[in-house]
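Much of our argument rests on the idea that a fold can be written as discrete symbols. The amino acid sequence and the backbone structure tokens for this protein are reproduced below:

___
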Amino acid sequence: MSRRLERRLDAIEELLEQFKIVLMLREPMTGAAADAYEGLRKQVVAGFEARNARLVGLARLDAEVQRGASMKEMTLLLRDLLAEAALIRVDDPARLDGQADLLFNIVGGKGDGLEVIEPAYVDAQTHRTVRMGTARAVRVSDQQPVGEVADGETAVGVAQPGVVDQGVTVQGDGEREVGM
């Protein structure tokens, strides 16, 4: 099925779901309406908690910058914040088994390998791409060894489709989504 058709079907399903909610709210004495209200209440609470977590993380970052934290300390703090948010940095497109275009915008270059310019970020809970990465095509012999980044630290990777590694797998269904 084409992506365009899939997107249209998704939009229709979303409209049907909204229609069901409207019908339930017209009959507030039904159990379905009570369930819908409870679901909405939980969504509002979750949204508030997510915003609060983001503000706490920003405050932690700002406090470290204000006290003059070293680059190493900032790197450790950022890793902690990424882990708390269940956000996975993907900076090894070679391990995506030819599906790097699901997470990376490929910009120029020639060759059968990819060099990461900017990593991609994936939400480990929803399996959605939070931020597309950017990579350039290179000859494999010109690349750094797999799993190494410029500063010599080990890269965080994503497994081949269907194989769990770092807690994430690529679905390989053509959508920009990473799933368990």
In short: Strands lie at 87-90, 104-109, 113-118, 120-123, 129-131, 133-138, 169-170, 178-179. The radius of gyration is 21 Å. Residues 31-66 form the longest helix (36 residues). The CA atoms of residues 51 and 89 lie 21 Å apart.
